[in-house]
Specification:
The chain is of the alpha+beta class. 39% of the residues lie in helices and 23% in strands. The chain has a four-stranded antiparallel β-sheet with strand order 3-2-1-4, with helices on one face.
């Protein structure tokens, strides 16, 4: 990543942090606030149809005041969605609804739509008295990927960790003999046998770790960051 790209990314992260802080502080009456998250491979047409169905269902709500709030929020989401011919490469996030001002005495309408700075995996549609920013907040977690190895007498597991996402890369089982043999296996011969098995097990684990985590061409880690 070039210095310019890195700077642009840092600016995008800074803007998103401030936006999330603003959204998390907002509160509304009833279920007047809509959180809509559309992942990259979704279709605008599907979400448009979903909002139309939600509008029809909401029209039958008994509470007139809450019905008006939700219908207004759905309409705002529909209007904002019309600006997009397709879902952006990183997905689309829309927050809209009627919120209370800081003193809690007045109301104001707010609509925020944006493409995250990196792909968002979640799909979400919620009406509530607050905006749900959990999925967007997760994008701010570290991109760094770490490799980890769990090894015991029964086998070894190789994995990666990035943020809250863990993935098993490879695993294999092992059957190491007990440290102390029984009967004819006891004594020095068995101890030597045990040490040899242990040495082979450790060497196998080290060789696999090199294959899984190190780029042979560069000798550097192949974990993405």
């Amino acid at each position: 990543m070039s210095d310019v790209d890195e700077a642009d990314k840092n600016i995008a992260i800074w803007k998103m942090k401030n936006l999330i802080k603003e959204l998390e502080a907002a509160r509304g009456n009833g279920t007047s606030m809509i959180s809509l998250i559309i992942p990259p491979r979704d279709q605008i047409s599907r979400v448009t149809k979903m909002l139309e169905d939600e509008f029809e269902t909401t029209s039958k709500m008994k509470s007139r005041v809450n019905r008006q709030y939700v219908l207004g929020a759905i309409t705002s989401a529909q209007q904002r969605l019309m600006r997009y011919n397709k879902v952006p490469p990183n997905g689309l996030v829309i927050y809209t609804g009627t919120i209370l001002t800081d003193d809690g005495k007045k109301e104001k309408k707010v609509t925020k739509d944006f493409e995250p700075f990196k792909p968002i995996k979640d799909s979400l549609y919620l009406c509530d008295n607050k905006f749900h920013t959990e999925a967007v907040s997760e994008l701010l977690e570290s991109d760094d990927m770490f490799g980890f190895i769990i090894m015991d007498v029964n086998g070894t597991l190789f994995g990666t960790l990035s943020g809250n996402t863990r993935e098993v890369v490879h695993k294999f089982t092992e059957d190491l003999p007990m440290k102390h043999g029984r009967g004819k296996q006891s004594g020095f011969p068995f101890a030597a046998f045990h040490m040899e098995k242990r040495h082979k097990y450790v060497r196998k684990t080290a060789e696999l770790a090199t294959q899984l985590y190190i780029n042979p061409a560069t000798g550097q880690s192949n974990l993405k960051s």
